[in-house]
Amino acid sequence: RWGFVPQPGTALMRLAQGKHDAAAASIRRAIAETTEPLSRAGLLPAYVDVMLAIGDSEAARTAVRELERIAVDRGNDVLDAMSAKAHGQVSLAAGDIGAALVALRRAMSVWQSLQAPYEVGQLRVLLSSGCRAFGDEEAARLELEAARECFTSLGARPDLARLAAGTPRPSHGLSEREVEVLRL
Description:
Blueprint: H1 9-16, H2 20-32, H3 37-54, H4 57-74, H5 77-94, H6 97-113, H7 117-133, H8 137-154, H9 157-166, H10 176-183
Helix pairs in contact: 1-2, 1-3, 2-3, 3-4, 3-5, 4-5, 5-6, 5-7, 6-7, 7-8, 8-9
């Protein structure tokens, strides 16, 4: 109504609502009509999120390469952190856990130096996934606890709800079926 296009917020909101098709259409349109590199850089991280959510890993990889080029051209810490996070997400989705952890740690280092706690919290969630994929459950748990503390201090209730929904219940060494039988 005020002449401002609410992107990437609209696409991310649709993604959070589980409306993946609407999120994809929204962010694709925004990317298609945006030509200025810094404006595109503001959209590309959300584009990566949405493309990974709908399973279009090639589009996500292409977006990461573009974001990396913009970051190199501009020589900006924030753009470097954004591209490192996106690179980590795509690597994580592709199963290249080592590359994902390196990129995510690089992004977290920048966001920590810039004192950006929300971004650090988001990265800790991703790092937890990477640690878990490597089989390091203790590190995964510690990263999630740190993310939870961060989101709690910021009052980021949607992020806390996502963490709670994705946190597996303790199995105490039992299989999923054994836990189910024990509950019955």
